[in-house]
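[agent] plan:
  1. take the single chain provided in the ticket
  2. run structure prediction with default settings
  3. attach structure tokens to the ticket
  4. add a short note for the reviewer (M.T.)
[agent] executing step 1
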Amino acid sequence: MKSRTISVFILYFIVFLPVAVSSSAQFEETILIDGGDAFRGLHPVIMADPQAPGLLHICYFNSYYDNESELRYSDLKYTTNLNGFEKSHWTVDIVENSDLTEGEGNYVSLAVDSAGRPHLFYYDPDETSLKYAFLDNSTWYRETIAEENAGSFVSATCDSSDNIQLCYYDEADSDLVYVYYDRNTWLKSTVDSEGDVGQHCSIDVDSENLPHIAYYDATNRDLKYAYFNGTEWLQETVDYKQDVGQYASLVITGSGLPAIAYYDSTFTALKYAFYNGTRWKTEYVADSVLDLISVLGSSTDEGTYCCLKIGSDDIARISYYSVTYGRIFFATRQGRSWYKELPYDKTFSGPYNSLEIDEDDKPYIGFFMSEERLVE
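[agent] step 2 finished; step 3 output follows
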């Protein structure tokens, strides 16, 4: 029998050691969760369980193609680890599968409530609608919450009262939409409708459960930020230099101030913005003068699919993809300095990735990669 090379598409998971941010990359292990000759692990989202240390929740989707590279069907999947990180400890559920022509699970987002129940939000490109699925006593329940070209770029979170808050892009009206769900009613409101706004939106809530959203203004090619003050939505422009704001990832810090990681399409670089209580400050994520020169010279392309997390230690951590090197990178900020690490040194690892930090500020990354393997 002749040997042949096949492409294998894999969802991997990295467990990091809790080391000082200035240390070189020291991740504990890399675990394969789902792999095969389908696109497995696209758009992963990873969340730590609020009640069980070490328990993680991950959702992602797989796409299956025929020999002519035509998409035949797609699965939206959810996985969690029971009592360890080895592959045998992960259970995988198919939340929804379909013979879709465009793929189920695009723009998937995950929120976990205080009881550890996962809530999935995902865009159905065939029906151009936003769908919701939640797990209760081993049964998945589903419903459609927005229709008619609504639901792409969805981002969701559970607040401290276990109410769900989310935002998404309404493609029909080119607006940013916010939704509040009290477990009985979906309450929708338009956050911003000035021009084509709302793509690449990211939501978080503060200590008073008030929502904050970062998003891309496609009309002006700016990064924008909106927050609800208890009475009305207020919007402001964070960064307007060049074409900035795609892949926005927002976090509200322990001090109640917003911070955002995002992509600069003009200089093809990763940027970081934070509000210091008086004004917004922006900077490029560069770990040396030479690195900054490289960024400003557009000699590298990195920062897409960025994911920002800030733990109780107030250290900003970002996972992101480098197109130039075809690898996932991990950056940390201590003081005013950035440190970059290469957590997994294989080509085409991390074009889709998600970062999470547990209660001990230990980071985890779930990511997609592809590789070629020789089979008989």
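[agent] step 4 note for reviewer: The longest strand covers residues 4-16.
[agent] ticket updated
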